[in-house]
Design brief:
The complex is a heterodimer of chains A (502) and B (654).
Chain A: E1 12-13, H1 17-35, H2 39-63, E2 72-81, E3 86-92, H3 96-112, H4 121-140, H5 144-153, H6 155-165, H7 170-199, H8 204-210, H9 220-234, H10 243-250, H11 253-278, H12 280-306, H13 311-332, H14 335-366, H15 377-380, H16 382-395, H17 402-414, H18 419-444, H19 460-478, H20 481-499
Antiparallel strand pairs in A: 1-2, 2-3
Helix pairs in contact in A: 1-2, 1-4, 2-3, 2-4, 3-4, 3-11, 3-14, 3-19, 4-5, 4-6, 4-11, 5-7, 6-7, 7-9, 7-10, 9-11, 10-13, 11-13, 11-14, 11-20, 12-13, 12-18, 13-14, 13-17, 13-18, 14-16, 14-17, 14-19, 14-20, 16-18, 16-19, 17-19
Chain B: H1 3-27, H2 33-59, E1 65-68, E2 74-76, E3 79-81, E4 84-87, H3 89-112, H4 119-138, H5 142-160, H6 167-196, H7 198-203, H8 211-220, H9 225-242, H10 251-254, H11 260-268, H12 272-281, H13 283-287, H14 290-311, H15 317-337, H16 341-369, H17 380-383, H18 385-399, H19 405-418, H20 423-451, H21 479-499, H22 515-521, H23 529-551, H24 557-563, H25 565-572, H26 577-627, H27 633-653
Antiparallel strand pairs in B: 1-4, 2-3
Helix pairs in contact in B: 1-2, 1-4, 2-3, 2-4, 3-4, 3-11, 3-16, 3-21, 4-5, 5-6, 6-9, 9-12, 9-14, 11-16, 12-15, 12-16, 14-15, 14-20, 15-16, 15-19, 15-20, 16-18, 16-19, 16-21, 16-22, 18-20, 18-21, 19-20, 19-21, 19-23, 20-23, 26-27
Classes of the chains: A mainly alpha (502), B mainly alpha (654).
């Protein structure tokens, strides 16, 4: 376990583009902390920062050349923590580049959606920006220690955002979120340390090539399990999902958007990047378990969703159901299914992010999220109603919108491997149609109600993030190649390198 | 026929949708008249291109024209998806029917929807509806077809629920979507099962999702019979949902909550026709599997009879027509099931014309009376002569009276069943023949109750008129509504012998004998005078019975109903299928049973357990925190436990 001689150049490598994308929001948060006080100024500055970050993430995605493949836009400083042999190492491949874009998109949507925040606005926007750095860092880190730091960093802003700016049982929910995630992190940390002490490196790239072959201190299956628990809580996988409905329900709108849209994807990303790529043999052995858990997530999630009466809880439970498709796609261990799983993360992020934005708008204006109290809103807020319908249809997998492409790829990929599981999972789209259409009918259709006679439609500021997400959903739905070409590159690299599949 | 022209058939209404939804409605809603004109113009373009396509295919002796749009394709591992246009005789005939019927409906809608505040939204949806249906028909790739298949479902959802303020409309829209989606689930599984055999296709250089390749595989026996049967049955489940075949028929009668022209379009050319088209499109699969064929025949024949009985007792004239559609689609399925592919499509075509006309006629009657309940109509014959005559023509055509369009197509199906030569085909022939009689009874019951006798007050006497404002104003509808009706009436008269004449048209060189069947199937179907005589006799006696009961009122229908009270109740309650599905299966077993139980488990057991563990963890953390002084007790616990595990690991394996 002696650290070997450092052979890499000690100096900085890279263009700094990824570093800028990751660290700009943090820098913005520090700037706010030091120099800005007035609410409008803070808000305006945060908006500028996050919009620039969105442009940077777009640039990252556009610059990623899928015909070349591999890790690109690498930023590397090998001498970060020399005595641990930990490096500052960022890079994106075909799987992470779309997720960086997703984080950029939803981060911007979340800040835009916080336009009306009055209470302790300075801290609020600071935490949102810190959160953005954390998620960007998770998706781009190629060093396990760095990855873990970003992973843990995300908890701090989330805890405060939920417990201070949330609603309902916010302290309970924030604490629950924290305990669940930290428990997962503890397991993950064990896994990371075992890998480090066994292989003598934190480098994700090196570990991917050598982890399973290396002589591990504990059986590979156990390391896999430690890491998996951390990611499974995040995704979330049944039965570790119960933090999610509470956290979502009590979080402020923007945080729900980030939570459902981006944070859950950290779990799916970890499973693909770490579990699958580093432990192909273990993955192959327990693929049946992944498929089973996936189906449980899909059906159990969908059936519990049907019983929800709070708009936010309903959307939250539907996320559990949709994340089941990620597991099912991963379990297929083939290009089609894995591409579907990776795409599902992006599409679910945009679709559910949009749904939470819209639920937030309804709640802001109608002052209730209880479905039984709502009704006839389409006459009062036609814009919100139309977009809600689009988001709902995307969520139930309507072709022409992005969710369908991901789900159909998962089904096509998983069916040859896990026939029965896929048939059961595909039934989830029927149940999804049930809860989505029921929700829309109850909230928006029916006669206009007297108590909502004075509420208005979305304002221009509120429309901006909504329109952006709708555009993302439609573009990917109509022209999925824009993402699938990149994702397929990333997925086939993993399958070729780790599984020897062409 | 160029590639752009072929795509244009579908792109014209799609462009109309985009223009209305993205430009006219958000920014120029004051000029909403434009929306109607844009839609009609798009339909004219589509129709012209469709006729061009039909000519091109006919000129090529039925050889399919096809194009693939590589640039829109998707390539993921073994999956290659390339959308394309496939113009074979079936598609060429279908695009003409769809765009023609749609054009008639849109022109009619200019008048019917004149004062509706959702005018632009209506035409946007209608454009998208037509575009989706045309896209479905033109699709060369099965996945592409599925995309448009779902889009058609979406548009009918939007249009059935067009007046979303009415709870009944919103509920009916949701029901339509959910029931058809249950069917789509079968279709999706069929696609998955086909793709499962991509390896087999790939060896031959074929693609399991491309329709011509699937035909080829079915014909050459590349796929085992068992596989073909399962795929064919899965596809048929999808078709059952869309085409309202038993037992997925319950959504269609409720779908009447939308504006009447929508019903007209759904019943004549889009949505329900999609199911029949899909089976026809996949016909080589069925030819390769007698089990699948027999299933289609029996479901079709049974539905034809079953739905016709419910048509006998409905009082809402639109519901009568809805049951009629289910029943007629049953005929088409039955035709496909007995192998009479050309006849089934021929019937789809003639039915499209007269059913569209029947709905437009009902809409016109509703325009005047404000109600759809036949008990409060009556006597419209004198006030609305054009509506009456055109409706009568359509009714005669539906009943299958010589020489109207419906006669020829229905007869071909019955003849094919009669000559099918198996027990199954004989059974479905008997069911079909019985349905001929019932069809004549229910449609002439509607004719007599709506147009004959004395006017019974319309919306003013109807205790439950449809929501909205109604003025009883007994006069003929405006010309934009009447003109399409007249055009369709002419079609309902001549379409039969123009499109599939029993003999060359008197040497006029207009059309050779049986050209449509030959075009579609490659061989002609003979006419059977015996079967034709029998069906005419049945239709005539049905009309006679309807006259006795509702025209001359020699026998009181109520007295008859009283005689067979249990049977009457059973039929008028629609055999309790709605109750069975909604009350028992969905509500009690599924929603209040299974889902409720799971929700309870989630809350009390799964979450309860997690809370318990978490609580213990917090107590433990608090304990440690008391030992120390820090705030980050949780971190402490976590790191401590992590380190303990690591140490243990070192001791055990190190």
């Amino acid at each position: 376990m002696e650290p070997s001689v450092v052979t890499e150049a000690v100096t900085w490598q890279g263009t700094g583009l990824l570093s800028a994308t990751v660290l700009l929001p943090l820098a913005g948060a520090i700037f706010i902390a030091l120099f800005l006080r007035e609410r409008r100024l803070v808000r305006g500055f945060a908006l500028v920062v996050i919009t620039v970050d969105l442009l940077l993430s777009l640039l990252v995605f556009a610059l990623y050349d899928s015909s070349e493949g591999g890790y690109q836009l690498v930023d590397r400083f090998a001498n970060w923590i020399p005595f641990l042999k930990a490096e500052y190492h960022l890079g994106v491949d075909g799987i992470s580049a779309p997720l960086v874009l997703l984080a950029g998109l939803l981060g911007a949507a979340a800040v835009w959606a916080s336009w009306h925040i009055e209470e302790r606005a300075k801290e609020y926007f600071m935490w949102l920006l810190v959160l953005q750095t954390a998620v960007m860092g998770v998706f781009t880190s190629l060093d396990f220690l760095l990855f873990f730091i970003f992973w843990e960093l995300e908890l701090v802003p989330m805890f405060f955002l939920i417990s201070v700016w949330g609603s309902g049982r916010r302290e309970y929910s924030a604490m629950k979120f924290l305990i669940f995630t930290l428990t997962g992190s503890a397991f993950m940390l064990v896994g990371i340390l075992v890998l480090y002490f066994s292989a003598g490196t934190f480098s994700i790239v090196e570990l991917t090539a050598t982890a399973e072959a290396a002589k591990l201190l504990i059986p590979a299956g156990l390391v896999f399990a430690f890491l998996f628990v951390g990611f499974a809580i995040k995704l979330p996988v049944w039965p570790l999902h119960t933090w999610l409905p509470d956290a979502h329900t009590d979080a402020p709108t923007a945080v729900s958007v980030m939570l459902a849209g981006v944070l859950l994807k950290m779990g799916g990303y970890g499973i693909i990047r770490i579990n699958v790529a580093m432990f192909p043999d273990v993955t192959r052995d327990i693929a049946w378990l992944l498929a089973t858990l996936g189906v449980i997530n899909v059906l159990y999630g969908a059936m519990v969703t049907l019983r929800q009466t709070d708009l936010k809880r309903l959307v939250a439970f539907s996320s559990i159901s949709h994340m089941g498709y990620v597991l099912l796609g991963v379990a297929s261990l083939g290009t089609v299914g894995l591409t579907g799983a990776a795409l599902q993360m992006f599409t679910h992020g945009t679709i559910t992010g949009l749904l939470f934005l819209l639920v937030g708008l309804v709640y802001d204006k109608a002052h209730t999220r209880h479905i039984g109290d709502l009704g006839g809103l389409a006459s009062r807020m036609p814009f919100v109603a139309s977009v809600f319908l689009v988001a709902g249809l995307a969520s139930l997998g309507l072709p022409g919108l992005s969710g369908f492409v991901a789900e159909v790829l998962v089904f096509l990929g998983a069916f040859p491997v896990w026939g029965l599981a896929t048939v059961l999972g595909a039934f989830g789209i029927v149940v999804a149609a049930g809860y989505i259409l029921w929700m829309i009918q109850r909230c928006f259709f029916g006669p206009a109600r007297e108590r909502f006679a004075h509420i208005g439609d979305a304002t221009l500021v509120e429309m901006i993030p909504v329109v952006a997400l709708v555009a993302a959903i439609v573009v990917v739905g109509v022209y999925p190649r824009i993402l699938t070409d990149v994702l397929t590159t990333g997925v086939s690299e993993i399958l070729t390198a780790s599984f020897g599949l062409g | 026929m160029s590639e752009i022209a072929a795509w244009g058939i579908f792109l014209a209404p799609l462009a109309s949708f985009a223009l209305i939804a993205l430009v006219i409605r958000p920014f120029f809603n004051r000029c909403d008249r434009l929306s109607g004109y844009v839609t009609v113009l798009a339909m004219v373009v589509s129709l012209a291109l469709s006729v061009g396509a039909l000519q091109a295919v006919m000129a090529g002796d039925g050889k399919p024209l096809e194009w693939r749009a590589e640039s829109l394709g998707l390539s993921v591992g073994p999956l290659t998806f390339i959308p394309g246009v496939y113009l074979d005789p079936l598609t060429a005939v279908m695009v003409v029917v769809v765009s023609l019927v749609s054009l008639m409906v849109q022109v009619y809608s200019l008048g019917y929807m004149k004062d509706d505040p959702g005018y632009s939204r209506y035409f946007a949806y209608m454009s998208l509806f037509t575009a989706s249906m045309l896209g479905l028909v033109l699709a060369r790739n099965l996945l592409q077809l599925y995309v448009f298949w779902e889009m058609v479902g979406l548009c009918s959802y939007l249009l059935i629920g067009f007046w979303y303020n009415r709870p009944a409309a919103a509920a009916a829209a949701k029901k339509a979507f959910l029931v058809t989606r249950l069917g789509d689930f079968g279709f999706l599984l069929a696609i998955l099962y086909l793709f499962f055999h991509q390896g087999v296709f790939a060896v031959q250089g074929m693609n399991a999702l491309e329709i011509p390749d699937i035909h080829e595989a079915a014909r050459t026996g590349l796929l085992a019979t068992g596989v073909v049967t399962w795929v064919a049955l899965g596809v048929f489940v999808g078709a059952m949902g869309k085409s309202g075949q038993f037992p997925l028929h319950t959504w269609l009668p409720d779908a009447m909550e939308g504006p009447t022209p929508v019903s007209s379009l759904i019943h004549a050319a889009t949505m329900v026709a999609a199911g029949v088209f899909l089976v026809a499109r996949m016909f080589p699969l069925y030819e390769a599997s007698s089990a699948a064929m027999n299933t289609v025949a029996i479901i079709g024949g049974f539905t034809a009879l079953f739905a016709a009985t419910m048509g006998l007792v409905a009082n809402d004239v639109k519901r009568v027509l809805a049951y009629s559609t289910i029943s007629q689609l049953g005929y088409m399925m039955m035709g496909l099931g007995v192998g009479a592919y050309g006849a089934a499509i021929f019937h789809l075509l003639t039915h499209g014309l007269f059913k569209c006309l029947l709905f437009l006629g009902v809409g016109s009657a509703n325009h005047a009376t404000g109600t759809f309940d036949m008990r409060y109509m009556g006597g419209l014959r004198k006030r609305m002569p054009v509506t009456y005559v055109t409706f009568l023509v359509a009714a005669l055509s539906l009943a299958g009276v010589f020489p109207l369009a419906g006669f020829w197509s229905k007869d071909e199906i019955l003849a094919a069943a009669f000559h099918g030569g198996s027990a199954v085909s004989l059974v479905v022939f008997l069911m079909g023949a019985a349905a001929v009689f019932l069809t004549a009874v229910y449609i002439f019951r509607a004719v007599f109750m709506t147009f004959h006798g004395e006017f019974r007050g319309g919306a003013e006497t109807d205790p439950m008129p449809p929501p909205g404002e109604h003025h009883v104003h007994l006069a003929e509808s405006p010309w934009v509504m009447v003109a399409p009706m007249v055009a369709l009436a002419v079609g309902s008269v001549v379409a039969g012998f123009l499109m599939n004449p029993v003999a060359p048209l008197w040497g006029l060189g207009i059309a050779p004998a049986h050209w449509l069947s030959e075009f579609l199937e490659g061989h002609a179907v003979g006419m059977d005078l015996g079967v034709a005589g029998l069906s005419t006799l049945l239709a005539a006696s049905g009309i006679g019975l309807a006259y006795l009961l509702y025209g001359a009122r020699r026998v009181s229908p109520d007295a008859v109903a009283q005689r067979v009270r249990p049977l009457y109740t059973l039929v008028s309650r629609r055999y309790y299928f709605d109750e069975l599905y909604e009350e028992y299966v969905v509500t009690r077993v599924w929603y209040q049973g299974l889902c409720n139980a799971l929700e309870w488990v989630d809350r009390n057991i799964v979450d309860g357990f997690m809370d318990f563990v978490g609580w213990q963890g917090r107590n433990w953390g608090a304990g440690i925190a008391r030992l120390q002084t820090g705030q980050l007790q949780l971190y402490g616990v976590v790191f401590a436990s992590g380190i303990i595990v690591i140490m243990a690991a070192f001791l055990l394996w190190g």
